[in-house]
Amino acid sequence: MRNKGVLLVVSGPSGVGKSTVIHKLMDRRGNMEFSVSATTRAPRPGEVDGKDYYFVTRERFMEMVEHGDLLEHAEFVGNCYGTPRAPVEAKLAEGICVVLDIEVQGAEQVKAKMPQALTVFLAPPSLEVLERRLRGRGTESEETILSRLERARQELPLAERYDHTVINDDADRAALELGDILSRWENKEEEK
Ligand code: ADP
Ligand code: 5GP
Q: How confident is the model at residue 181 (pLDDT cuts 50, 70, 90)?
């Protein structure tokens, strides 16, 4: 019997809908925990420290890196982001599925360290749709939007390195597909 939770890594370009789809999946399934990342980015209106992110100074972030407190970390468009290791390991050991919403460099680090992790690339139907979503969210400056779109062009070809790709056309449909992929992975792990 499986006694460890599955580590689900959801990656893909900024604005594709990772956060939206993950929340829909978590609403539908129990026994799942969202991994709260540390970041040096400033909070957006409405974001809560300890729930959306741990908002930290660059100095504190570097301390976490040096102490080996992060499972993975990366710089993304001028800010640092990283996954606190201890809560992930504790939840997995309890048999709880942990979900990471991280960019592509971090996803590669996790897969290299933990090959049993399930990696899913969430892709937009097109770059035009991605741009519309990023702008529609209304959280970034024009300069940041352009940097994130430039980054997206580099990230999209990396989809083939993932265990699965899901196209986020409709968020409910994408969440269902992600849930099916996760269930199949869990069943496969149980059979091992
Ligand atoms: P990410 O976490 O990947 O940066 P978000 O979840 O914040 O992206 O989504 C970016 C924007 O796109 C949000 O305004 C969200 O409401 C919207 N969105 C997400 N998924 C869809 C979808 N399938 N169709 C239309 N809009 C979507
Ligand atoms: P945002 O600033 O829009 O919240 O996040 C920007 C990007 O950083 C997103 O693609 C998000 O998935 C990614 N990200 C969030 N947390 C982490 C993390 O802990 N590690 C890595 N590598 N990327 C992260």
A: very high
